[in-house]
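Below is how a single chain appears once it has passed through the pipeline. First comes the sequence as given, then the structure the pipeline wrote out for it. We keep one example in the README because the format questions we get most often are answered faster by looking than by reading.
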Amino acid sequence: MGDWLLNLRIPWMALVIFGAIYLLAAAIYLTVIRLAVDGRARAFKALSPGMLPPLGIIFGLLVGFVAVQVWNDFDHAKSAVTNEASALRAIVLLAEHLPDDQKSRVRALVNSHIEEAVQQEWPAMAEQRATLETLPQQLVQCLDVALDVKPADESQAIAQREIVDFLGKAAEARRQRIVISQSSVSSVKWSAILLMALITLIAIAMVHSDNRLTCGIALALFATGIAASVLLIATYTRPFTGDISVTPDLLQQVIATEPAIGASVQ
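Resulting structure:
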């Protein structure tokens, strides 16, 4: 499935997909009706209508198999972003127990990490260009700051341990969202779905080739089901691409609620 299609707004994507499927159904209808003469007409009618339900079931199973993968990836992407935002917010709250210098430093680094994620990583994930080669430098620096703290009391010692723990969770959540951003429906799966749809449309046209109105209605109905299935999968196939995608809103809320948002990274 082309990037240009997946990046379209949903109404335009629906128009392209439904239009293409209906054109395919129309081409099959015209071809089969034109061929359904003399001996070929008898051959088409010899096809048993009983073969249509198994073909429809196989198509449905393929769509369901792919849909489960797509929706699982989307849910995992949302969970990864939620976990990252929660971990970063916990770090900001725990930083209140640190000395003033380290507290300001941690806040500034968390803000910088979120801004880089929103401005650089999200566009890269949408285009499937994000990789794990680049380390989250702000989180690494934040870890250094936390480890350099000399706890003056038990509360600072606990805060230090918890910040280190949540930094690990934030880094793992970031890793998960970048890995998930590489997921998509492979060309093999798309080919299987579309090939099965094509075979079923041809079978429907052949079985009803002796009645043009019935043939047209049957093809239109099944073509609508195919288009709806393809549209549903296409809108969710990349968790960070398109109208329906995982946004960085939760991460930005961590910045929005941060009193030291103007702090700069030293």
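The longest helix spans residues 52-94.

See the next section for the split statistics.
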